[in-house]
Amino acid sequence: MSKRKRKKPESGATPRAPAPQPAGPTRWTQKRRITVAAVGAATGLALIAWGTAHHGRSAAGAPLPPPSAGAGRTPVSYADFVGSPTCRECHAAQYARWERSTHGRAGGPPTADRVIAPFGGAPILFMDAVVRPSVDGRDGYSFTVAQEGRPARVFPVAAVVGGGFMAGGGTQAFFTRNDDGTLRFLPFDYSAHGRAWFCGTSRGWVPITPALRLEECVEWPPSRVLGGHSRFASCEQCHGSQISLMFDTTARAYATRFTTLAINCESCHGPGRRHVALARSGAIDTAADIGMQALATLDKDASSRVCYQCHSLKTEVRPGFLSGEPLEDYFSLNLPMLVRNQRYPDGRVREFAYQEGQSYSDCYLNGSMRCTDCHDPHAQSYRDVTGTPLRGRFADGQCLGCHASKAGAPERHTHHRAGSPGSRCVSCHMPYLQEALVGDAVRYARSDHTIPIPRPAFDTQEGVPTACGLCHQGVSVDTLEAQVQAWYGELKPHHTAVTRLMQADGVADRGAAAELLLTIEPRHAAARFAALLRFMTEYLGPDLPDLEPDVVDRLERLSSDPDLDIQSLALASLHLARGEDPQVRRTLTERLGALGPRATAVRARWRWILSFLGDAYLERRQFARATTTYRKAEELEPGDPAVLGSVGRALSSGGDFAGAVRYFRSSLERAPGNPETLVNLAYALGQGRDVAGASAAYQRAIAANPWEPMTHYSFGNFYTRIAQPQRAIQEYERALALDPGLDLARRALERVRGAGARALP
């Protein structure tokens, strides 16, 4: 960790919420994250007393312009995709390279040629369970879990993701089809590097041994799903092609849909139906376009976004993405920094990331570097900037294609013998670093795509393993630093935006911090976003009457920034801190009116930010702030059912159950049958002594989605509160049947049964 001390947030600052997933804030309950309005008995038979609060007022002034109802672009649908085999008809050479690549072999049904883990071998031994990975015939793979005190369960393997391909530590994961229609991740991963089974725990990834209890695996029982969904922790859309997960209200089950669990042609090129039609008709040579985007013509930003669909941490700000849609309309690459402090100021990985660190590199900022300059997009082999194939991932041609002056006598630059590992460009500038969030027990290292200059003293201060120390282990940092300075003298300074971000550490005065963090800098959008985010989370809060005019002026200038994320964050910051001020109100209205084709992407981010901040206040029981912030989101998206539900949750948590009921009912008018809203409505009605109304709402929630364990848990709490223990027991048991790992329900069941036993003569 960095040795620089961070300033504590001021009393008006926005706190970070305890890390929800990078896809976005989930309000529906999971076993480790509870919807506050649905929480029931905490101890004994008493419900949690949320207390009362003075709720924040809606922002004053004229209403903000509503979302445009314009036609926009035609959305992509599944009918637009033709599948990779169709592409082979004309592009046989590219198809052949892709088919052998890691993208082409990324996943699919369990088959003998795909599964690398030792099924049929030794059992996986936990302290309290035995898991037997077995294979019956050629393709019948399964895990049988025998846990102490519980009946054995068989989990057939429905899908395999990964094949142990990555040089820094490849893994393979397995999914089973749940009764509710989801494909759920099984917490028995296999490490090709370590030739061992492992699982994720609260302390990182660890090999499975008899010293580990099964329930220490955070994904047990299986809860993470394939495909993005606000209800679940998920694997997003990356591990497969054209993945979607929706709740089918007719079938009353989830529908998991995908083209393939490989990464197919249309994942990058977009839907091919129109292109194929033009090619087969013979009209493609005379048509105005080829029926899909020509990826080779994209600039560095658009080209990188094609890869960032998967090779980045991102936050879903709008559901429904399919390849071919604008990524920025559905995802933000920078908002994950609001959820978790993922990066150091210079962009290197603090906890976990993918390859989006490239946006911090000089090769990108001061050059034209895109992913395909080094990576062949079809074969995933390596090449130089001219497209010439290279012998492997460590070939210097990746760098020397642009830095030709270093090729003649490499020892003059590297100070290591030519051809030695220490003389490779990537050894110093793209070292393999273990992802900190996964821990050190299981190898999972990735090449540092920020392409930094080795700075032994600075690197160590930041908490990043320095490239020099990876080879010269046991040599002191002072010695390494002295050698680097002797060879190279004064090193190239960091970008100004990064320097300002670091200089802001420990600055208590808001005006001084604004001067450092809210200064317009050319280029480096990622660092400027990080600076603005730092300012918002540490110095701003809802409706600050004393916000300095200079700060408002700086935020207003940033609210016209060409970068979508920066513009959205600046607008959200202004709205949060001074949304009732008439001048700021005019600015917000003007900016909304001038968004044009950016409107969808900016509004989605703006609303997501306000909703996330509302969640953060709600987590900390700051109900007035939560209500105020959610109502600002309501101003931006009036009538949005999710936002209305959020306001209801804040009111309910603060004790205004009548107000909450009005908001929940308004939400249900726009999204009838939403089980989360029905559960929260039931809770509020129950607290308002409307027993019949609460019971009816719970019944409607169960009818809408019979697979949701938290509905039954909350219904059990309701029955506990009205002194109907037998019905409470039934609901807790139903919750546990759907999710055996729901400890809230297990503890509640034990309390109710214990209270009943004590009441017997």
What overall geometry do the principal axes of the alpha carbons give?
globular
Strand content: 5-15%
Low-confidence stretches: 1-11, 17-59
How many beta-strand segments?
18
Helicity level: 25-40%
- Count of DSSP H/I helices: 28
Looking across the biggest beta sheet, what order are the strands in?
3-8-9-10-11-12
SS content category? alpha+beta
Q: Gap between N and C termini, in Å?
A: 59 Å
Whole-angstrom Rg: 27 Å
Largest sheet: 6 strands, antiparallel
Mean pLDDT: 89
Describe the structure.
The protein has 761 residues and is an alpha+beta fold. The protein is 37% helix and 10% strand. Strands 3-8-9-10-11-12 form a six-stranded antiparallel beta sheet, with no helix packed on it. Strand 1 (41-43) and strand 2 (46-47) form a beta hairpin. Helix 20 (599-619) runs parallel beside helix 22, helix 24 runs antiparallel to helix 25 (691-704) and helix 24 runs parallel beside helix 26 (709-721). The longest helix is centred in the last third of the chain and has 21 residues, at 599-619. It is globular, with a radius of gyration of 27 Å. The N and C termini lie far apart (59 Å).
Name its key features.
18 strands, disordered N terminus, 28 helices, 37% helix, single chain, alpha+beta, 761 residues
SSE inventory with pairings:
Layout: E1 41-43, E2 46-47, H1 84-87, H2 92-100, E3 107-108, E4 124-125, E5 129-136, E6 140-147, E7 153-156, E8 159-161, E9 171-177, E10 183-191, E11 196-201, E12 204-207, E13 244-248, E14 253-257, H3 265-269, H4 273-281, H5 300-308, E15 315-316, E16 331-332, H6 336-339, H7 362-365, H8 397-400, H9 410-414, H10 425-429, E17 432-434, E18 445-447, H11 456-462, H12 467-471, H13 477-488, H14 496-503, H15 510-517, H16 525-539, H17 549-558, H18 564-578, H19 582-593, H20 599-619, H21 623-636, H22 641-653, H23 657-670, H24 675-687, H25 691-704, H26 709-721, H27 725-738, H28 743-759
Antiparallel strand pairs: 1-2, 3-8, 4-5, 5-6, 6-7, 8-9, 9-10, 10-11, 11-12, 13-14, 15-16, 17-18
